[in-house]
């Protein structure tokens, strides 16, 4: 009888165990979990804090309300799940795991034929003065979430400071602003979502966050936390911020001590190295979930990218291979999506920053547009940035942001990336079309077309980052071609370099512009800006550009 | 100077013309449109009738409210759009189009170097007695939509009969039930959406439509319409249905008379034949939009599949090629999506019916599940059916239905189909994951996994159609493993062949079942049904099956 031992009972571990049970009904399968809880939906915690989820228990239940307890797993999956049981050592020669019962302090040994390490990751706690004060939390365990919510509901928290503007940090910024707290996010890097968004897309999200009342402090470093027993302030290199609640969200580190001590190989990312079959350098030991490193399918680089979705895929692969399978996990695209009130940001594949670092000869295009026909109720704009390789047209990455439907577009591009598709392939996809769901030409197809037009020299788009420099240097004429109503409502800036001619009048008023000038045309989304480029080029202008994404995508306030 | 003439000014024609202008600023480009309106969002008409869109003019305007008139296209795109101007003949030798000014009856000739035929399609009017009575409409032109809506708002219509349960028919069924009309849909075939959905998926949608108050009459043939001047009843081969409003929605025919008379090749589908560059058999004449036939990328078969999305792609390809390009249109996947109140149905690629007809050795799996984690507000179930080739694992098609997010999943599979991906590729895609948008394992990945498990013999799923036969033949034990609460709320049927044992008790109550019996396990979505299969097989049962999709996907009332 095959003896399978799994260390870790949250996502990858239990998935592997359940899958192995289907492959081998006779095996003895033991899952060791040092905590009290197993199989909980950790990613749901910000939504519990924010109030979308009423009961923390919901994160631990099946859809019909059964708690995923040890008894449940025994009963339904025939798995022996031992909670409050920490694996303290692995003897690879003897093939034995030493465990400690945390409730009693007893130790024991459990023999294995095949071992799975799914020890997860832990939040990084910065070694700063005062970090141990009360009311400084990482949102890592349901107990954290419960204490934060209880504090909010008891009226103890008014001023929250979130350290780190990544996924968890910004999700918590939403949650806490929904709870009427004053929220300040402090980020060392120069933008929010620094790990995956390019600056101009992050800028759109920042502008939105600020409009929702979130204070964003970038390029700012926390130096200490002050207070008697409870935190009362966060001191940065620039200021002191009053705080009665602090959320540490500066990332996580893989839990690799056990593996490392057992002599398993740890990679450049600090996580456990596994091969395509999720096997460590010991052929009888698999590892998966947040404690292992992944390969980025596009760059081929090793990455530490802990995600619940990836952990579940690992679990399936390990479960199959524990029973003699040879299933491969081919890697990740570093896809992410995040909600910030009614805004969604998403990304898949390489960012422009990644593409540059990797030495690609790449081209980008950014387009804005409604997520369905403008005449439909609820149509909202989104901005899509596409990155492709110049010579092959291969899609390298995509980012999107907006109040409209972003996740669908990210997922379509993720599918194209998985199969190595080009911008032509992306344009060609017969995507579902009906007015409640989409425009006849989907936003990603518009973006693909913009890349094609740029490659063909027909569309001379520039990013808002470049546009801003040009606007400030004063040598370029900016041409706003919107309607008088739009012009009244909002302006790109009050710069005297902006000339206003509605598109409908442009053909007759071309003489007001100088053919020798560099002209940057734009409108709300810059589709009319592109028409303006056509009109001016037709009239003999030779240095006309379009500000990609238009006013909707202008990332500056 | 290149003289380009385009016949048809709705979707493909104007897109081709605008694109050609970008490629050739000097060309003379004339667009001939026999109607008064150009470039309108025809697909939005059901939403105008239903009240989602307030003003029919919105379908003819740009997002900032500018009417897309001839003057607009002249001004912005430098196109000469002649409305109420019908092309009556093409002289391919002389390269001249004869036109008739419909307002005055005058005729004229217009020479061309390159011609584009984008004459669209027309609704099929059945040659039945009484079809010319008042208040019998096709929803084809904005004037139809206006008259229907005016009649509704004047209180003239109470009993609507819709002929045809395809896309337009069912969209109108939604629109008219929203307007509080009594709606009956009469369909000759045995199911709704007969052209693209398999029976069990259509059944789920039918059940929903009936619950929304729509009367569905399938396998029923309209024989005549009766009334004095206005229609008062629809007579079918089975009954007489009182009606004060009739919508004809039995499909469309391509407008090919002009092309045919000019000697251009018409295909097996009745539409104009074009090559990959959208060129007819005359090298100077292109054709696109609803008047041409397309190729299905999967089957290689010619299809007549008029869609606004496809027409726009055609327009782009033609526009590029008019200016010396060699861009190819590679075909369609017959992707569709439709909204029926809060339900969405969608499909891409081949249906099971198609796969069977084409002689594929295929496998299907149907899975149900929430569209995001069950603990998130607004999580709703969807049912996904996946069709794949047995030997290669190549994905052939997908259908989905439910109140949850369907369009995203359809589009992801459309991307995989475009690139020839397999079920492994589909499972592997690093789709965006965060609780507001998705579960860690997306519904399409669950479906891909179900196909893999079926191929490996681990999951013995049967479709609800097969299950129903087994339930009725009485030789099979159906095993419902839901919770007592669920059992109280709803039953699959009152058949005595259904045995009820909650999953949590199954391991201890196995003796109540007979190992010799065929057992079909199920639950709400049949995930616990699959667990039950595991428990029973572990206990030595050899003939256990799972009813795919569970009660959520049961297509029978």
TrEMBL record, chains A, B:
UniProt keyword annotation of Aminoacyl-tRNA synthetase present: no
Keyword Acetylation attributed: no
InterPro entries: FAD-bd_OxRdtase (IPR050260), FAD/NAD-bd_sf (IPR036188), FAD/NAD-binding_dom (IPR023753), FAD/NAD-linked_Rdtase_dimer_sf (IPR016156), Pyr_nucl-diS_OxRdtase_dimer (IPR004099), Rhodanese-like_dom (IPR001763), Rhodanese-like_dom_sf (IPR036873)
Pfam family, one: Pyr_redox_dim
Assigned EC number: 1.11.1.1
Keywords, alphabetical: FAD, Flavoprotein, Oxidoreductase, Peroxidase, Redox-active center
Family matches, as SMART domains: RHOD (SM00450)
Top-level taxon: Bacteria
Domain Rhodanese stretches: 472-557
Cofactor: FAD
GO molecular function terms noted in the UniProt entry: NADH peroxidase activity
Similarity section: Belongs to the class-III pyridine nucleotide-disulfide oxidoreductase family.
Protein name, as recorded: NADH peroxidase
Organism: Sporomusa silvacetica DSM 10669
């Amino acid at each position: 009888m095959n003896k399978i031992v799994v260390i870790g009972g949250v996502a990858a571990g239990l998935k592997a165990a359940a899958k192995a049970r289907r492959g081998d009904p006779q095996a003895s399968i033991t899952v060791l979990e040092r905590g009290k809880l197993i199989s909980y939906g950790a990613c749901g915690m910000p939504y519990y804090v924010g109030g979308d989820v009423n009961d923390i228990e919901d994160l631990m239940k099946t859809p019909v309300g059964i708690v995923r307890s040890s008894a449940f797993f025994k009963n339904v999956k025939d798995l022996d799940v031992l909670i409050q049981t920490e694996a303290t050592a692995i003897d690879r020669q003897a093939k034995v795991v030493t465990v400690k019962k945390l409730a009693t302090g007893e130790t024991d040994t459990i023999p294995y034929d095949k071992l799975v390490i799914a020890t997860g990751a832990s939040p990084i706690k910065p070694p700063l003065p005062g970090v141990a004060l009360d009311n400084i939390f990482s949102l890592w365990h349901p107990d954290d979430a419960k204490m934060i919510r209880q504090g909010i509901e008891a009226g103890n928290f008014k001023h929250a400071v979130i350290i780190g503007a990544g996924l968890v940090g910004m999700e918590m910024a939403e949650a806490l602003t929904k709870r009427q707290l004053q929220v300040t996010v402090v980020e060392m890097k120069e933008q929010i979502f620094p790990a995956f968004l390019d600056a101009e897309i992050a800028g759109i999200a920042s502008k939105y966050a600020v409009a929702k009342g979130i204070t964003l402090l970038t390029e700012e470093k926390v130096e200490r936390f002050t207070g008697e027993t409870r935190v009362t302030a966060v001191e940065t290199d620039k200021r002191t911020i009053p705080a009665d609640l602090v959320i540490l969200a500066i990332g996580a580190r893989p839990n690799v001590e056990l593996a490392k001590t057992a002599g398993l190989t740890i990679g450049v990312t600090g996580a456990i190295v596994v091969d395509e079959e999720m096997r460590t350098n010991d052929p009888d030991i698999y590892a998966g979930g947040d404690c292992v490193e992944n390969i980025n399918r596009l760059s081929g680089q090793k990455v530490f990218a802990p995600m619940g979705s990836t952990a579940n895929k690992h679990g399936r692969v390990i479960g199959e291979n524990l029973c003699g399978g040879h299933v491969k996990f081919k890697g990740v695209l570093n896809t992410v999506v995040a909600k910030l009130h009614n805004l969604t940001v998403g990304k898949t594949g390489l960012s422009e920053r990644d593409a540059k670092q990797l030495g690609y000869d790449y081209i980008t295009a950014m387009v804005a547009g409604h997520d369905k026909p403008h005449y439909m109720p609820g149509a909202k704009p989104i901005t899509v940035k596409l990155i492709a390789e110049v010579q092959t047209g291969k899609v390298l990455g995509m980012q999107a942001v907006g109040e409209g439907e972003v996740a669908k577009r990210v997922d379509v591009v993720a599918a194209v990336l998985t199969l190595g598709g080009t911008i032509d392939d992306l344009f060609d996809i017969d995507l579902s079309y009906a007015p409640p769901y989409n425009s006849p030409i989907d936003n990603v197809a518009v973006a693909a077309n913009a890349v094609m037009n740029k490659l063909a020299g027909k569309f001379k788009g520039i990013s808002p980052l470049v546009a801003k420099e040009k606007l400030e240097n004063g040598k370029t004429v900016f041409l706003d071609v919107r309607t008088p109503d739009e012009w009244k409502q909002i302006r790109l800036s009050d710069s005297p370099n902006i000339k206003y001619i509605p598109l409908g009048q442009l053909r007759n008023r071309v003489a007001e512009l100088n053919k020798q000038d560099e002209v940057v045309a734009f409108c709300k989304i810059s589709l009319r800006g592109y028409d303006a480029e056509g009109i001016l080029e037709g009239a003999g202008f030779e240095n006309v550009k379009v500000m990609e994404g238009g006013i909707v995508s202008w990332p500056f306030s």
